[in-house]
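Q: Structure tokens for this one, please.
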Amino acid sequence: MLPISDLNPTRRIPFVTYILIGINVIVFLWQLVLPRDVLAEAFVSQSIVPYLVTREGLTIETILDFIRSMFFHGGWLHLLGNMLYLWIFGDNIEDRLGWLLYIVFYLACGFIAGLTQVLIDPTSRIPLVGASGAIAGVLGAYALMFPGVKVRGLLFMGYFSRLTELPALAVLGFWFVLQLFDGFTSLGANNQGGGVAFFAHIGGFVAGAVLIWLFMRVVPQPPVAERVDWLYEMHKGQWM
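A: Here is the predicted structure, written as tokens:
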């Protein structure tokens, strides 16, 4: 299922989510004007390379590489897919956490995601680029915080597709299970040409779920029934 929207209003404009999307787009447009050899060198010198992280350890420079990696992308589909998920699910996490804690949360999930992939494949010389790990943290948080909220998306069935609505836990839970399956089946495969860093997705998702679980233990949350009534009252008649 490809999600396209959720039934989950926010109390305020999610400025940080929009800024993150804007930075990712601007960095990608910058990538497009670079010669291929210069871009390849930028990926190596400015993003996570597991072999280099393993050799040099967590220095200030490698930590900065983890942050910079979150804003590089490998192509239009990579960028658009990530930004779609961030746009749909990021606003509500920002709304609940507040802008400052949301920034810390996003960067922490991205860092843990990258570190997970490094630990799984410490000798890889392929740069890890993309916001997927940080956004996976957003998905993990959303699945735990808003499990019953309806997500509208395209369900593909062969050559056909149809609009459908499913609970967020079902949509994001299936996404996570798919990452687990693809991640473990990719172990031992020769990926020297590049590919999807599945364990970054897994690490980010788990990090997001754990961090938001801790947040929910510390900060009292509105009763579930009250949240559901509020959500559906605000959007009454829109989802017929």
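A few notes: The longest strand covers residues 150-157. Strands lie at 2-6, 150-157, 160-167.
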